[in-house]
Amino acid sequence: MAPHRILFVNHVGRIGGAERSLLDLLRRLDRQQFEPVAVIPGPGELADELLGRGVPCHFLPLRRLRKTANPFRLLGAVANVVGVGCKLTALIRAERISLVHANSNTAQLYAGPAARRAGVPCLWHTRDLVNLGPLGPWMARHATRTIAISECVRGHIARYINDPATLQTVYSRITVPLSVAPANGGAVSTPSPCLGSHAEAPVIVMVGQLVPWKGQRAFIDMAARVAAEVPAARFVIVGGDLFDEHRAYGAELRARVADLGLAARLTFTGHRPDVAALMAGLDVFVHPVAREPMGRVVLEAMAAGKPVVAVNACGPGEIIQDGVDGLLTPSSDPATLASAVLTLLRDPGLAVRLGAAARLRVQRKFDILQTVRQIETIYDEVLGTETSHAHSH
Q1: Which structural domain, as residue segments, surrounds residue 264?
Q2: Are residues 129 and 225 in the same domain?
Q3: Of 71, 127, 133, 137, which is the most buried if we count CB atoms within 10 A?
Q4: Could you tell me if 292 and 377 lie in one domain?
Q5: 31-81 pLDDT, tens per residue?
Q6: In this structure, what are the phi and psi dihedrals at residue 122, rounded to the nearest 5 degrees?
């Protein structure tokens, strides 16, 4: 029997966390049962990765849709969704698609109605905590099943969904590296002065797009407090403004660093595609986000055997067991974050124990194969197929 063709709809062509999770899924999807096809806005880094995995790509002008009170922009967005949706319906029919998989809330705006018109089921993969307002129930009605990437996201999205049986949590897990890179492998290459050896210059790192909700401001203020106690400490902010929407924010962060006298100690690396490799060169990973839907980078740091400090809310609160495989703080308050970081810097034995336990936690609970099996089971249920999937790959 020919494999079922699954159409993955992704509304951006750059690679962020949602796209990395999609690529991980596609790398291990049972190709004897499911044949992936993708729709994305155009050529670029995501298209290159998909094509490299043998996934055919179709280009349609999907947009990053943002809330606006401007009636002309709103009208333009609606016209785009309707126009692209019609093309998407035609594509679903022409490509003999069995199921449409929308990889984000925005993708669902396009994919849900298109799949319904084409008479095929649609899976809505929701990955954030944005208030959808009146669009929420409409999007839910156009989804055969909804996947939330954490219990926190499931609780948030449940208000829009009439039938709880159609909503399921499937954690966005990661590919766990087979081994941990040696400590201080020099992976964090920066233009700043040499970071020195671990004993002399502990390295504290955060990773996230340069957008306000990711909490870089809290990290910078935390860094000032830690540096006052451990003058040798060095700090690195990894991430860029992927969609060029927050230039003022980036400038504000750099000004804050200068004002606090941290310019020689804190480095901005910009966007880096090799986040997992960067983990080798750090001593403490800090995730200062107050409302993180899941926290893929938290999992990557833990898988690298690094101690993590994160806020006890949403995704990280579900991933980390406080004091067992990481440290959770009650808020993203810089003083609270600094206290947790200083605890780890002053007790290297604790940092090592938490890092080792963190890696074990990810291996047992957050390996990508668990996610792939769950999603394939959902495909089987929706498509009415009963297949067993060999996961030797």
Answers
A1: 203-365
A2: no
A3: 127
A4: no
A5: 999 999 999 999 999 999 999 999 999 999 998 877 777 788 888 888 999
A6: -130, 135
Q: Distance (Å, rounded) from C-alpha 122 to C-alpha 125?
A: 10
Helical ranges in 95-215 per DSSP H: 105-118, 135-141, 151-157
- Do 140 and 227 fall within a single domain? no
Plot region of 131 (φ>0 → left; ψ -120 to 50 → alpha; else → beta): beta
**Residues 341 and 375 grouped into a single domain:** no
Cβ-based burial of 125 (10 A; exposed 0-12, middle 13-18, buried ≥19): buried
Would the pTM count as exceeding 0.90?
yes
| Inside any domain, residue 392 | no
The verdict on 80 and 68 lying in the same domain is: yes
The sign one gets for the Cα dihedral 288, 291, 296, 299 is: positive
Backbone angles phi, psi at 216, to 5 degrees: -60, -35
Confirm whether 179 is domain-assigned.
no
Q: State which amino acid sits at residue 17.
A: G
**CB contact at 8 A, 369 and 393:** no
Of 38, 32, 42, nearest to 6 by C-alpha is 38
Q: Name residue 125's beta-bridge partners.
A: 147
**CA proximity to 23, closest of 44, 43, 52, 3:** 52
Domain count of the fold of the chain: 2
CA 186 – CA 234 distance, rounded (Å): 13
Assess whether 289 and 338 both reside in one domain. yes
Average pLDDT in the 157-182 region?
A: 93
